[in-house]
Design brief:
Elements (H helix, E strand, L loop, with lengths): L1 H17 L3 E9 L11 E4 L5 E3 L5 E7 L2 E8 L6 E7 L4 E8 L6 H15 L7
Parallel strand pairs: 1-7
Antiparallel strand pairs: 1-4, 2-3, 2-5, 5-6
Length: 128
Amino acid sequence: MKQILFILAVLASAFSFAQQQHSINGRLLDLESDNSVLVYAKVVIEETGDETLSDDKGFFQFENLKAGTYNLICSFVGYESKTLQVTLASNKTAHIEQFLGASTLSLDDLMLTMASADKSENPVSSNN
């Protein structure tokens, strides 16, 4: 009888420990091209520094997180980064579906970039 109670106690504690683990998963999609997936987009948890890349279907996942609020930073080259606030509570997995749009460059920014590139290519020498 003691063995059965011991086994039940171990199973109950293992079950309650397993419920303390939380996870965040999701998918990153391209807002510009009919919601196609973004392959190898970067997702970072700001508070922990953990990062991952989306797979070939746009999916990403973080596991073994504690309950709390996290900021996810989603980014992809040539696209605007987005920061999402996710709250993990009551032993649930948070599922995110995020759309990233192409980043824009203003004409002023482009002109400044071109002007600084011209200066670095043609240095002025004072040896005359």
